[in-house]
Amino acid sequence: MRLISASGEQLGIKHIREAMDIAERQDLDLVEVAPNANPPVVRLMDYGKYKYQKEQARKAARKKQVNINVREIKLRPKIGDHDFETKKGHVERFLRGGDKVKVTIMFRGREVQHPELGERLLRRLADDLSDLGRIENQPKLDGRNMVMVLAPRKDVAKGAQEAKASRGKEKAGRR
């Protein structure tokens, strides 16, 4: 089998007994890295240390992973101006927090015969918040509900992500 040292240099083709003796002398493990190669390739390494480093890299990658939540706001087509402004404030807070927002307009009774009212309301909301978010899914009628999804703009989402990270560091520092 082809033997590779811990530093990565090739030590040549050795018999398995000889490779195991070398590994034992150097207090390392003999790990098969390419069993299908001709001849098979084995490497001298500290396997426990290797597994530990892989786990640390996986944890670091998971820490950097971004979780995006989808928040939902429900409206009615005959909503008052003040109520609309209140709901818009909630959507704005969600977008600033880096979350996506699913805006649902619920139609009751004969209101469903006028979906243009709901679409106009959703477009108005999207226009008012165009500096914070963009429409990810266009308004679509789904039974008695009309649904639209707003996603935060990249710069807004990045700022929210950095703010969350700094708050996490502050909490860790207080412990």
From TrEMBL:
Give positions of region: Disordered: 153-175
* Domain Translation initiation factor 3 N-terminal span(s) in chain numbering: 2-60
Translation initiation factor 3 C-terminal domain residues are 68-152
Q: What is its main location?
A: cytoplasm
User: Gene Ontology cellular component?
Assistant: cytosol; membrane
Which intervals carry biased composition (Basic and acidic residues)? 164-175
Pfam assignment, any one: IF3_C
Function statement: IF-3 binds to the 30S ribosomal subunit and shifts the equilibrium between 70S ribosomes and their 50S and 30S subunits in favor of the free subunits, thus enhancing the availability of 30S subunits on which protein synthesis initiation begins.
Kindly state the subunit structure of this protein. Answer: Monomer.
Protein name as catalogued: Translation initiation factor IF-3
Q: What species is given as this protein's source? A: Rubrobacter xylanophilus (strain DSM 9941 / JCM 11954 / NBRC 16129 / PRD-1)
